[in-house]
Amino acid sequence: MLARIRISSKLAFTIAFTLFFFIAVTAAYTFILHHTLRQQQTLRDRELRVQQLANEVAIQMLQARRLEKDFMLRKEVTLVESVRKAVQSAIRQAEEMIRLGQAGQDEAVLDKAQQIVLAMNGYLQAFQGMADGYQQLGLHDEEGLQATVLQASRALERWLRWPEAVPHIVQLWNSEKGYWLGRDNASALEVHNTLQQLRTLFNRAGGKILGKADETLLQNYAQHWEALLTRERQTRLQSETMRSAIHAVEPLIDEIRQVSQHSANQMAASSQTFGERAAVFLLLLSLLTVAICAVVCGIIIQSIARSLKSLQHFAQAVSAGDWDAVMPVEGCDELGRLADAMRTMVDQVRTVRLLSDRLVLILLLIGRGTLPARVDPPQQGEVKAVGDALNQVVDTLSAMQPLAEQLECMAQGKTVAPLPEALYPGEFKRLALATNQLLARLQHSP
Asked: For residues 206 and 220, what is the distance between their CA atoms, to the nearest angstrom?
């Protein structure tokens, strides 16, 4: 099969094969290296972005807590919107962390970010409920439930006309004042106990001094007071919920930072391992390519060497005189064409040798006076001219045969026709002319 391919094509194929694999291996290594570096850069950028988002969430939460404390101190409604904006900004940052976690398939970051979003939503709802509760209670003393309780408390001044109720009313006001100052359960309990005492006192003897309207005032005060306490308890519960939510966010942010760093380190290590394995694989592939190229080159060189050795043996056999030596080299490559040329040359030399042997034989026959037969010379080369000249000699000598027959007939006294002088070249023409003259004299003699 290789003998049908030209040597230049074999070498070109080997060079192209080697160059192709070299370029392929280099391109593959470059691509894998670029992919590994780009993946590591992407991981690093995502890690930095997650860290930045975690810091921004922490900053927004600190801002929300500061605004919350300002609201608790100043009771300004405008601060509620500021707190809402800060919390919503933190939620947006956490949602972006969720998207980054989904893109990077980082379940830990995704889970922590979702918990932060839930906690922040809970904090926002609790703060909104607390703000609504404070607005319902009254941001100031003359607003909301506080104003209603104070009005009901002032209405109890009618009970002061009953001397037995005076110390209880004073105690009620003192306990109420203590509650407004401390917002403690002890003051609330004192108010509750004082109301019970006033009810007991009214039931025992109040009907003689106070009327139904005074009892209604006491009931209104008790109802407004209970509504105030209920709203206060709800506000406290919402405040505790808000505190637990905000305290749950801080460790989640720290965990996100740690998890993000750990995940990035793991993925970077995985990328590095992949890159190292790819480099080893490419190295082995390069070695395999070199081995394949070496095998192909070895086969081509062995084929050329074997053909050259066969040509050498053939040339040595021919030079030793073995004209029947066989040329085993076949093919369409340069060596095959060289072998064909050598076969043709040997055939030509063999033909020349046969022709030279025939020439010697012809010369021997001519020397003995015998006319030989014509030879069949080759159709090409200078040997053809030798063969043609030899045939011309044979033809010229063959022209002597009619002359000999003419003379033989004349000797026998037979009548013969003159010889065609134009058919005889050179000196033979003179001989033919002399023969014709002799024939003419013999015919005219008596």
From this structure: 17
